[in-house]
Amino acid sequence: MGANRPNFLGRTAIAGVGYTPLSRSSGRSVLALATEACRNALEDAGLEPERVGGIASFSVLNDSVPGQAVATALALGPLAYVLDLNLGGQAPSFLVMHAAMAVASGLTDAVLVYRALNGRSGVRVGSSQFPGPGSQYRYPIGFTAYPQYMAMWARRYMIETGAGYEDLAAVAIVQRRYAERNQRAILREPLTLDDYLASPFVADPYRVPDCTREVDGACAVLVTSLELARRLRHSPAVIQGAAYRIGRRSGLDIGDALLWEDYSRNYTSLLAGDLWRSAGIGPDQVDFAEIYDCFTGTVLFGLEGLGFVGRGEAGAFVRSGETWIDGRLPTNTNGGLLCEGYLHGMNTVAEAVLQLQGRGGVRQVPRHDACAVTSGGMMDGSALVLTRG
Amino acid sequence: MMQHGFIAPELDEDSRAWWEALAEHRLLLPRCRDCERTWFPPTPGCPHCGGTSVELVESSGRGRVYSWVVVNRALAPAFTADVPYTILAVDLEEGARMFGRLVGGRGEALAAGAEVRAEFYEVEGRVLVGFAL
Known about the structure:
The complex is a heterodimer.
Chain A: E1 12-19, H1 30-45, E2 54-59, H2 67-73, E3 81-86, H3 91-104, E4 110-118, H4 146-161, H5 165-180, H6 193-198, E5 201-204, E6 206-207, E7 216-225, H7 226-230, E8 237-246, H8 267-279, E9 288-290, H9 296-305, H10 314-319, H11 336-339, H12 346-356, E10 370-375, E11 380-388
Parallel strand pairs in A: 2-3, 2-4, 9-10
Antiparallel strand pairs in A: 1-7, 1-8, 4-7, 5-6, 8-11, 10-11
Helix pairs in contact in A: 1-2, 5-9, 8-9
Chain B: H1 16-23, E1 28-32, E2 54-58, E3 62-71, E4 85-92, E5 97-101, E6 115-123, E7 126-132
Antiparallel strand pairs in B: 1-2, 3-4, 3-6, 4-5, 6-7
């Protein structure tokens, strides 16, 4: 969008990642989860807590705790930068951008970015009602939840491209194969095409395996200057490219798509040009991708939107194995939100960092010099290009 | 296919006139006097050109199916007795998109581009609009 390369790119990095275990019932406070994930990210990077100058997070329907509380529990501070956003899956890459801007501007050298929630035992976003001016046109008729909204988009995509259930299935199946290699994943049992087709519909065209698994847990990443990251434990994941976009007529609230023209394309189509321009590389130069997958369809949207494949080609790309570990573009290598669990895409960013740093273990992708990450599924979202420092 | 479940809409000052007309079985759409485009839902300004001179015009109720979803699992308790049911995204001929229940029979003829017409029905004292093939 701007004429020049944003000045935080190439000078900032993700230096560490932290997780809590993911579960269906943590039995712990969200504050305890957030604090543990942030502490783990600091220990992972090898940075002393007193070096942290900022903290950033996001929440939906008041399902998390503010950065202030986490900073208090971690004995951080004084801080120069605190940001609490009221957003969903659009936020993780966007927050990393924000943190990197705070670092590049000189406000601070290190910012923790986290997402923490009891997303299964507490507020369940997938079946919650979202207030907002657009809600009065969908709730009265029983159009009430995200799986239904996203299924409406998936259906239109299928209409326009000729994609079928087997294309959605391919995404669920390959990601389950990755999850078999990921001890953190909440869903690790093998999934066959027969299993997929035998599973019940939630909102046709989406069946149960097309939908993310809500979990309790937290994930954090540490954003620092590249200079500082180079002195820390792991090789930096350099923030080379970044973009956020909300399209025109994006609606009246985060569940409202009435004015959105094309349900077969999401924000990835709109930000791709800026993302690659800002990174100085194109989709052909990326080794793997972590694409936000609240539902299987958003993976197809993202592969096409970012230009990894042409229009309507994503299903065949996935079915032919190109997103598996030995394919052209290993994708969602932790099993994605579908299988690892729904930390609203913060774990999507963290997986990219682990893979870039060569810490993917049994699911490590063979080439890991550059990757793309996306955050969000519908009208707005954000994306990063990260490279191995 | 009857709708049983219901969640009451939270009206606001931008939508009140639309809901009041719906209660009289009239489907209104906001239209911009500057760019002459029509849209849905009602907004204080024109989302196409930013114009501020907005009128409400009556829709023919005729449109075509843009997309649809079959709700097989109720994700709000109010609609447990309704499943399965179909929500259509309909492009009205005036140029606005709406969501509505597929009402009446002939669900087997559902396809992209299929012609539909608005049908009004009442649930818990509130008039809603659905679409029939």
